[in-house]
Amino acid sequence: RAGLGALHCGLGHTHTSGFLTTLGVPSISSSNFKKRERESGKAVEEVAKDSCNQFNEEEKRLSTTGNEEVVKLGVSLPGGKDLTGEDLRATLEEAIRPFLSHDSVKKLAPAGSSQRNESVNSSIGSKAPKIRHYGGSQSSDFRTAAGIAQFNKGNRYLTLATEKMGLAQTHITEQNTDKIDKKRKRDGERKSTKEFKKARRNSRKKKNQKTNSAEKREEQPGTTQVHGISVEFCKGRKTLLRRGKELEAVSQTQGLSDFCSFLKQQSRSFQVVLIAHNGEKFDFPVLINALRRNNLLELFLATGVVLVDSLKIVSTEMKQKGSPLYSCKSKSLSDVYEVLLKEKFDAHDAQEDATALSRILFQSPLQ
């Protein structure tokens, strides 16, 4: 059984010995292991050969039996019913006759699926991993046979192999093989449903879209390249630079505190409204998190400020046929500005962005 288990799990003597000794079970010698491996390997080869012969006979039977008046096209037809009729057969034969010549066959692309081949390769690979060298010994043949037997018979090949070796069956082995085979059958049935295939197709589509988006982002210039702002150490201190020129800067806490004071002062005379393009997903969360980190969120909320995302306004306008933005294909601030005002601006500059958004909302045909 140790030899059969090693073949089934893709283990050699070293790994089997390590597993047994870790459990506190005495190991077996290398020569004894090879002897047991040969015994179980020959039994597995017989099981694999019998299963292959069985499937060959079944294939022969299916290819030679059947009613001559029935055109077998499989169960994928409506209702799962076969097509019948001599007239239909004659018409189909006439249609495919031009493709039956030897030259025509050479031009046809193979329409078969390689999934079953890949499945067999995967099964064999689990018995003979590439990281271990079994190809130079008889063990490679045994492991290949184990993979084929498992593919043809499922994990039940283990019980068939033990019968070939004349060993008594154990309840644990039978219970485990039945459990795994039932799970394999359920998975196969689940994966063959239309719902699963549709979900898998959608998942693959989303994954491809995500990959394409990531590739596009990699092709775009970095943030520093766009607005030219960077932070560097000059004379032992952090300095904010824009295209090499030093900018006046204060700490984040000081800047936010001054900002809240400004809002409080303005709120005495006006209802303060902060508008940002795509602010709901970017600007506002960044601002709120920064205020919270600096313990200034309550001071900010006390001003009664209202937050508005201009992207929602643009999205609504783009859906209305009479809107000047109906023909606009992009919701970006620069594209919206160009469509409405027929000119461009220096995007990604804070002051320019604010001015552009103000003109879009209050000085463009949109109003």
TrEMBL record:
Official protein name in the record: Mutator-like transposase domain-containing protein
GO cellular component: cytoplasm
Amino acid composition bias (Basic and acidic residues), ranges on this chain: 176-196
GO molecular function: 3'-5'-DNA exonuclease activity; metal ion binding; nucleic acid binding
Mutator-like transposase domain span: 2-75
Record's compositionally biased regions (Basic residues): 197-209
Assigned keywords, A-Z: Exonuclease, Hydrolase, Magnesium, Metal-binding, Nuclease
Listed Polar residues bias regions: 112-125
Domain of life from the UniProt record: Eukaryota
Chain positions covered by the region annotation Disordered: 107-139, 172-227
Swiss-Prot/TrEMBL GO biological process terms: DNA catabolic process
Database matches in InterPro entries: Mutator_transp_dom, RNaseH-like_sf, RNaseH_sf, TREX1/2
Cofactor: Mg(2+)
